[in-house]
Amino acid sequence: MVLLEELDTEFGNIKIMRSKRDGTYSYYQEACFHSQINADGVSTCGYVHVMYSIIRHAQARRVLMIGCAGGTLATMLHNVGCKITVVDINPHAFALAKRYFQMPEAIKCVVGDGWSYLLKTSQHYDAIAIDAFSSDGTVPEQFINEDFYHVVREVLDPLGVVGVNVMVEHDMDMLADRIALNMEASKMPAVLFDWPGRHNRNVIIAGGVVDHMQIASSRKPVSVRQELRGLMRRPPKKRMVNGWK
After folding, report:
1. Euclidean distance between CA atoms 188 and 57, whole angstroms
2. Is residue 86 part of a domain?
3. Which of 54, 72, 175, 190 lies deepest, with the highest CB count within 10 Å?
4. Contact at 8 Å (CB) between 236 and 181?
5. How far apart are the first and last CA of the chain?
C-alpha cells in the first residue's frame, strides 16, 4: 500500500492509501477503514451496495447523507440522477472525497453536525443515509436515540426510507437492534440486513417503507457479490439489554 496523503484533523487522523496490487484507493480514519474504490471508481464495500439498494428500492430522488468519508455512496447515487446533500462535521472529508474518490462537484456538501442539520432544515427527503462514526469507530449516541428518529421521520417523505450503517462485534452485540427498535418507536417499521456469525461486521438498518425490500447481488463487482453471500434480512430482536430502549 502507498500512502498518498495523511492529515491530522480535529476529528482524527486520516490516511488515504492506494494499493500497488489492484489500484484500489482506501480511506482510513484513525484505525478504522471507511471507504474503498476500485480502479473503475466503484465501491468495493458490500455495506455501501446494501445502502445503495435500500435507497434505490425507494426510488428516491432527493437524498440526504450524514457522514461522508470517501463519498462513494453519494457518487453512486448521483450517477443515477439523485440529488444529493452530504453533511459531515469534518471539512477535510469533502476535499479528500473529491481528490481521490471521484466525488462530483455537483454534490452539495454541508460542513456541520448531522443532528443539528436535521433540526434546522426545511427540506424533505425521499431517503436519508446515516454512515457516521466518531474517531474511535463508535456511532455517536445522538444517532442511536429514539428522539433522533422522531426528527428523521419528520424530515423524511411519508414513502421514504432511512438507512443506517453500524458496526457490531458479534451476534450478542445489540447496537443495531437497539437502533431498529428506536426507529419502530418513532413509527417507522424497521428491518436489518446482517451477516450473522461474522465478527466485527457491518449491519445496515432500514426504516420506513421496507415491505418486500431485498438486496440484489447482480450487477455488482465480483468481490462485492462474494461479500454479500450470507447476507440475511431479519427483524429486530425484541430482547432488552441493560435497560436500553
Report:
1. 16
2. yes
3. 72
4. yes
5. 43
